[in-house]
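Input record (one chain):
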Amino acid sequence: MSTNPLVPSSSASSDVQPILYSYWRSSCSWRVRIAMNLKEIPYDIKPISLIKSGGEQHCNEYREVNPMEQVPALQIGELVNWTSSYPRHHMYSPLDGHTLIESVAIMHYLEETRPQRPLLPQDVHKRAKVREIVEIICSGIQPLQNLIVLIHVGEEKKKEWAQHWITRGFRAVEKALSTSAGKYCVGDEISMADCCLVPQVFNARRFHVDLRPYPIILRIDRELESNPAFRAAHPSNQPDCPPELPNK
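The corresponding structure, as predicted from the sequence alone:
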């Protein structure tokens, strides 16, 4: 098992580290992986295939973890004795753990319980802008091109459907970034907005969305692609990424 907090392990140490139920290409799982990497929270990955045998997220065992039958879900213990003098295995209490679902709720929990390396600015206006961008992506774009929706739309129309909603949402994101962006989405510090933007750009490329009208989005995505926390969270670096895929 790796001791590097940026390289999650797929093997068990569930009594000492958080467990993230994740799918390699899930943008919602990806957001949480980035946030945990940025905060240097070590964690284990428990892969949940969204396509194998009709989707492992629908099995009875996982439904007990996440009644929405989606990823991610995070099992995480209470922090105890958060001091540098304690070894890392004393930082979590396995007996008082929580299971959390929904990526944005998880990120806010991490921010409130592990405020080191913050993902929300201190300035209240900037903090509101971060939440605004997060909301556009996580409520106004991603759910409309999520797997369960695309299955309902059907194979013939799913690409056109996804392109429509991503394009509509990215127009709003680009407009928001025109007044908020510095080096990153809001100013010059990485925030939750960046955690959400990068996976959504990946989705846009997957559905062949023309990204040329969104130069600020593209610039920020390029800026973040070399960040170690973002690289480690990338789908190609996940334990359940199919080995035959390019760049694996």
